[in-house]
């Protein structure tokens, strides 16, 4: 196989067959902020061939502390559009579809249709549950990630698996409040969790072992600990 030199550093860690397979994979990233921007960056660089990036929001000044796609020149611009421009700048071989909308009950299934994997980089519990529900119905694995202050967590959920609802209960009972509103968002927490999410997405679409499945991986950067909790 002949690959562009841009993928030379992928090899050995990934076989040539796996590198070729990535070019045919379709991954949806929902949320183009602190987590999503870094996930998008990694997936475009490693050579995932088709990316749909979804976000209804625009960049504001509070995003500058952590969101890689946000610069002072991008303030007020739609996050999904900026994400698509970034992907084109990184890797012109990647087919990218920006979707400027918020995810909810009515549109989740249509937004995810045809994907090999969905990466959940959302920031509210209600939207996360609609994303998980749509993936269950469509038979698509979803990689969930969240951050709050120095703390972050990741899990990969296949249709039929216990989901992160086991840890959170029903979002509608609590109004969908996320902990990041109480604890803040730090840049390095976002980068660490996004890196794990990107790795999980690649493992999912390539069928590689070692996925964070049926457990919730928890990372605390303040005390330097990593732990996990079984999901039942």
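Q: What amino acid sequence fits the structure above?
A:
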């Amino acid at each position: 196989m002949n690959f562009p030199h841009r993928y030379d550093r992928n090899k050995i860690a990934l076989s040539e067959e796996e590198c070729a397979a990535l070019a045919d994979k379709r991954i949806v990233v929902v949320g183009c902020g602190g987590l999503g921007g870094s996930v998008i960056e990694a997936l475009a660089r490693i050579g995932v061939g088709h990316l749909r990036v979804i976000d209804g929001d625009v960049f504001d000044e509070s995003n500058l502390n952590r969101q890689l796609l946000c610069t002072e020149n991008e303030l007020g611009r739609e996050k999904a559009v900026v994400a698509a421009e970034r992907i084109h700048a990184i890797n012109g071989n990647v087919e990218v579809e920006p979707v400027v909308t918020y995810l909810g009950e009515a549109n989740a299934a249509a937004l995810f249709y045809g994907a090999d994997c969905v990466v959940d980089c959302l920031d509210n519990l209600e939207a996360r549950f609609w994303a998980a529900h749509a993936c269950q119905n469509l038979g698509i694995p979803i990689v969930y990630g969240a951050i709050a202050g120095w703390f972050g967590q990741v899990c990969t959920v296949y249709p039929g698996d216990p989901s992160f609802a086991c840890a959170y209960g029903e979002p509608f009972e609590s109004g969908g409040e996320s902990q990041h509103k109480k604890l803040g968002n730090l840049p390095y927490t976002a980068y660490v969790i996004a890196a794990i999410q990107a790795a999980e997405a690649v493992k999912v679409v390539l069928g590689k072992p070692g996925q964070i499945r049926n457990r919730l991986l928890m990372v605390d950067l303040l005390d330097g600990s990593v732990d996990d909790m079984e999901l039942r």
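Q: And what stands out in the fold?
A: The chain is about 35% helix and 20% strand.
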